[in-house]
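Components:
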Amino acid sequence: MSPPLKTLLIANRGEIAVRIIRAARELGIRTVAVFSEADKESLHVRMADEAVHVGPHQAAKSYLNAEAIIAAALATGSQAVHPGYGFLSENASFADAVRATGMVFVGPSGDAIRRMGDKASARQAAVRAGVPVVPGSDGLVDDLVAATREAARIGYPVMIKATAGGGGRGIRVCADEAALVQQWPMAQAEAKAAFGNGAAYLERFIGRARHIEVQILGDGQNAIHLFERECSLQRRRQKVWEEAPSPSIDGATRQALCESAVSLAKAVRYSGAGTLEFLYDDRSGEFFFIEMNTRIQVEHPITEAITGVDLVREMLMIAAGHPLRLRQSDIVCRGAAIEVRLNAEDPAKGFSPQLGRIEELVWPGGPGIRVDSMLYPGYTISPYYDSLLAKLIVFAESRDAALARLQGALGELKLGGLKATTASLHAALVRDEQVRHADYHTGFLEPWLLENASRLATATPELSS
Amino acid sequence: MAIHSILSPLPGTFYRRPAPDQPLYKKEGDQVQPDDVLGLIEVMKQFSEVTADVAGTLVKFHVDNDMPVDPGMPLADIDVA
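Structure:
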């Protein structure tokens, strides 16, 4: 077993740095914060036992500056580095560089990050572990005969994807074989014109998908799951509202989904906390692995709420060399949790950034309420990093009770000093009938925002003062 | 000569290129039209274009690429004479 961790450097900022400091403090671990020129007055700097300036406001020169961060860790006698999420958290070379100095990287091996971080190799690992992936052609398809044969095997609707395509270019959706026969020559001509290559991939088109992800913990030998989260309410592929457990799957699907995540985690001998993301087609009941995040996630608190497990604490225990302290049978899913992201953006004005100094700050309280944030009265929002101000997490015995709790909590929240936040969006979402019935999918929120623009504008005054 | 100063409308990071591997939008000495883009300001990972607003000769940039700016800070001077 490795020696106990006495000092931990947190290579991050904002609410997640605060979250990690709290977990470390409870384990008796000294904490070292790093900060950029813009973050001298940040809460994580104030809370840590020690803080090191690692560069100017630009993230590329500070929070992404691996050399400066490793130098800070060594200079402060740190035995371990926790990367949080974003920044260097999924940078395999950083993980390797930290370990090369003899320190512990709180996360999986560089090789595991490389393997599971690359979509193609993660897909291969999933197929080998028997985990379903989005059905697709085995390599490139050259002609219509091969295309119809492959499409019949994959199952309609299928999507023709040009090889060099990206960002939706060169993609055509075919509902059935007649459509494929009609679309194929055009897709080929387009692909040839745009990319100089007429060959294409075929893949099942999942028109109405839910985003469901499974939380796992591994120690390199064994792995367990901590059930799933559903994050289907997204804007521009950014999660806005997350729930645990998923309100849309039954017990048998849950078991199959979670077991397949564990088998993949075990197959790659995963160590640390990780999340396997799946698309779930609620019409066919099928789920497909899409990718793995090899780090702690923003929405981890809803899993902590329904399981009672402190995921960051477990990450630190695993990093210190302890085998998993929990068995699968110890993990019980209880009640329902919802997290909403409070961002410094005005949902009534195209989510434009909102800057300012926090004046009045009143967090909601009472049973089943948790706020993870780096805000304090007098704090000035920095324009240089992302817009996440706080995560409001509610937990109750049932989803209905959690919705009621969320509605009440949003009413108590007072965030003075900013003209608007996404609290007004959440206040409208929590009252929406379709959201209340979890009748949503990953394509739900963007059209909803257009249809409900007027409600967002009027919801603002009662929530911010 | 009449100098028109372009002031930063926002706090954030000023960029003089559309992307790190692309050429500068404008150089000192260039002729500019009102709709020409001089740079970008990044605020919380969202980008806004800064336009010249007037026609003339761009005589000076006050802020380098990838530097922090505050609202009201002069970014560039355009000679409109």
